[in-house]
Amino acid sequence: MKNNVNLRTIGALAGATIFWASAFSAIRFALQYYSVGHIALFRFLTASILLIGIAFWKKIGLPKLSDLPYLVLLGIIAFTIYQLALVEGEKTVLAGTASMIIAASPIIVSILAAIFYKEHLSLLGWIGSLIGFCGVALISFRDLISFQLQPGALFIFGAAICISIYNVFQKHFHQKYSVLQFTVYSVVSGTIFLLFKSPGLIDAMVNLPFSATASVIYLGIFPTVASFLLWNYGLRQVSASVASSFHYLTPVIAVLIAWVWLAELPTWFTMAGGVLTVIGVIIVTRWGKIITVDHH
Fold first, then answer.
1. What are phi and psi of 149, to 5 degrees?
2. Residue 47 CA to chain centroid, in angstroms?
3. Residue 211 and residue 16: Cα distance in Å, rounded?
4. % helix, strand, coil for the chain, step of 5
5. Can you say whether the dihedral through the CA atoms of 179, 213, 33, 230 is positive or negative?
6. How confident is the model over 159-215, as pLDDT tens digits?
7. Does the pTM of the predicted model rise above 0.85?
8. Less CB within 10 Å around the terminal CB: N or C of the chain?
9. CB-based contacts of 199, cutoff 8 Å, min separation 6
């Protein structure tokens, strides 16, 4: 890998980060019109069509039959359950707040890797995890007086666990399949299991405002497929640790996009929790691992 980072690489990684950050606002906007199930299905139908087209173009082939149950299970966890939980949570949680909770995923990944792959965290790693989870706790409560949970926060934390499981256990397939192959197989699998949400989708697409439909199509094209292509282009140019530093910006960008697009701003209390979460993630990912393995 190259150590120097040129403008094209920075643009690719920044573009992927911005697209990912924008997804939270796009979901919140679409929720004004579409149901939770329709957003999830429509988004990944769009993404699956694009990915299948790319798969035929690249001639990636089919997975081994023996791997299919595991690929399907990971697809269900990461793209069926994750998406339904995230969208359900965003019914009551602001876009920027949701991005802060999801930002804790690298900490969850590190803990799962320590449990299943013996990638033990150092003392500093456990301290960073504690700081990060304290941040998530602050985000999840409305204030320090009532300690009332924000409705939907648990759904979004559940979504963070789902995507973390996906990121950890895809390691098992790195020697068998390319990133593109694995992504296509798991996204399409997850989409198939979202089809039970299809009743009424066509009527909704016909009758609802075009802006709502466009926001869901945007979700399928840009935060799902385009971000994947841009991110993997960037990863070919720099190390995973350099690229991962862009992830720290996701909550900040998500808050800014939500402010401009939806006129949403988290409370200072929530933003303080977001800062703690990002600090915890930086500690864990930068200095917390005794055994460092590149999961990309």
1. -65, 140
2. 14
3. 22
4. 75, 0, 20
5. positive
6. 999 999 999 999 889 889 999 999 999 999 999 999 999 999 999 999 999 999 999
7. yes
8. N
9. none
